[in-house]
Amino acid sequence: MIPSRDEIQKSIFGAWRLLHYDRAAPYFFNLSIDGLRRSFMAPLAMLPLALLSVVLARVNAEVPTFSLIGETLGYVAFFVLWPLILIPVARAAGLTRSYVPYVIAYNWSIVIIMVFMLPASVAQAAQAERGGAGDIIYLVLALGSMAYQFMVARLAFQASAALATGLVVLDFALTLLIGRVVNTLFY
Asked: Which parts of 27-152 are beta strand (E)?
């Protein structure tokens, strides 16, 4: 179930090429069903960085272990729910052939997003301590990651601009919903 070093390197390179809106980028991914299964290791590998971002975001507040369990469950829930939500979307849009490539590219794109968002979380935490532009940096990178997800949807899912925009909005809404549930249950 763990991807080989070669598959990891090619997939991260493919995710990087998606950032540059390279139409050949999806060909760097293993687009098989096994590649789909293994692609879920990318967000799983990013879980510690996601939790570190949570801790940094709450630098002035105590982060109980219980809440980190909730954040972990929320993170995992997202990567379970997102592909399931996409099934009827793919069917309705006539993009079932692009479903597997999109989920694979989406999963690997998380590596690129985390590489950019973790330093933004550090900047935001530093601002909380002494003031600065951390919130602006974080906002700019969050908007940039949404633009990146738009490109992933356009290239890997072969979605129209309208559908890709809808997917970014749906992704954001699901993230907010899961965040609300985690905050309600674990904080």
From this structure: none
